[in-house]
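Readers of this paper often ask what the protein records in our data store actually look like. The remainder of this section carries one protein's record, kept here as part of the documentation.

:::
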Amino acid sequence: MQTKLEEIARKAQRESKFRFTSLAHHITEELVWKSLCHIDLNTSPGIDGVTVKEAKETFQIWIDPMIQSVHTRGYKPPAVRRCWIPKPGKQEKRPIGIPSVGDRALQRSVSTVLSSIYEQDFLSCSFGGRPKRSAHQALATLNEVISGKKVSWVYEADLKNYFGSLNHNWLIKFVEHRIGDPRIINLIKRWLKAGVLENGNVTIPDQGTPQGGSISVLLSNIYLHYVLDLWFEKVVKSRLMGEAYLVRYIDDFVVCFQYRKDALRFQDTLKKRLAKFSLALEPNKTRLIEFGRFAQRHATERGEKVETVYFLGFTHFCTRNRKGNFMMGRKTEKTRFRRSGQKLKALMKVLMHYPIREQVRRINLFLRGHYAYYGLGGNFKALIRIYHHTEKRWREMLSRRSQKSYVTWEKFNKLKELYPILKPSLSVPYTRMQRLAVL
């Protein structure tokens, strides 16, 4: 299977305008089973109530009819169960679609086949939802662009309700540039039109793609590949006076410019470009600021401070290294730090009456995940803050459950020696960040 996908990838790389008219035969029993095994056992079931464990046990019963229906263009995906989850740190809620387990495995299989083609087309400025293209790489690339290129202005943007605004007609047109297999096109159309079950009622969406499906992220990347990435690379950059760089992580993107005039022209043109494809910017998260080593020099002359850039959970600011040269610093964004504190508080409530050994195991799982993402070079102080915050919360929780109602620091430190919690460490130091950059 892997060899066949590699052949497809080589073909797509050699012939950038070739349309693949026969792909459905690559969706095999082996690939669907492999996709099914990638789904977490604790994943919520869809509207049919079938769990991952049950789907694996009955795999030989439902796999043949599913593959046959794909080839005959008779596959009808079950409606997606919609639930609303709170946005961290906000009162708003975000809709999440939960497909059935079998449908999710099929989506993942189709996504695997299509990714072998589109990974050859996607540009280096695109991150997120792609194999081996992480948020850390996007951040490292932004660091290299601002630190080493002629950048004085940064335009940070976020798309409003992106997954719910995708135009189905445009999306199918974009897919058909490369995919000519009617069975695959039929599958995508049916996934886009799959009903959404909410409060006992099923509605058929006329735009957008439900978040939660494996195919959704790939389709969203394809959409912005044509709407934003290619347009910026082929049309916009050739008409600018100075240098310009785009860094996009799914629907969040940052554009760096050498000249303010270019940034203002792009800002006006972008709104018209997005409106053509039924997209709009989130005004509260979109702004143009002066930023970079030249901006720092100008701000110092005026006696002002340089504004900060917010991207992927980090606050980026202008500073200097030990040699006095410009460098871009970063720290955990305030809202993200507050969110981590809220998660920690909720975790402590759950763990209050657990054995100490289990408490430490769960706390260390939380800290390990936090350090893994936020442990970038320059952010060590923020890691120490979350470590001390965790100590404080844990001690408070132990004091509340103690009969004496108080655990002294002396007793707490002895307890930590027996059951140590994970100390801060950088997952991506400065030296490794330079290697992660993709320019």
